[in-house]
Amino acid sequence: MSGIEMLEKYLGLASERQKLVVTNMANIDTPGYRTEDFDFRSELNRAVNSETSMAGGPMMHEVSGLVARPDGNNVNLDREGMALAETQMQFRVGVQLIRSEFRRLLTAINEGGKS
């Protein structure tokens, strides 16, 4: 698997997690809603080591240890805000890495034509 393919999977997972965190935040007032998340590192490992596409997406799980309100909702905006910031940072790093990879390829192409 090439570096670009791995970065594509990395960015895809970061995007999925961002959607999930935003969904959690959007459901702050939904009675009975339970916060969901996935382990980014283990899902990235699974995506990189998998021969097939992860059509079903990452394996979500209910986040344990959160305090539920009387209506059963356990969304914590502080936790979700931190998760969103972390995910945005991961995405920015992935974009920087892919830019760097493309610059490296462009340099190789340009230098190869000078011989």
* Pattern of helices and strands: HEHEH
Mean pLDDT: 93
Give a short account of the largest sheet: 2 strands, antiparallel
Q: What percent strand?
A: under 5%
Fraction of residues in H or I helices: 55-70%
**How are the strands of the largest sheet arranged?**
1-2
Distance N to C terminus: 29 Å
Unreliable stretches covering 5 or more consecutive residues? none
Q: Radius of gyration, rounded? A: 18 Å
Number of strands: 2
What form results from the Cα inertia axes? elongated
Number of helices: 3
Structural class: mainly alpha
Give a written overview of the molecule:
There is one protein chain. With 115 residues, the chain is mainly alpha-helical. The chain is 61% helix and 3% strand. The protein is built from three helices and two strands; from the N terminus they run αβαβα. It is elongated.
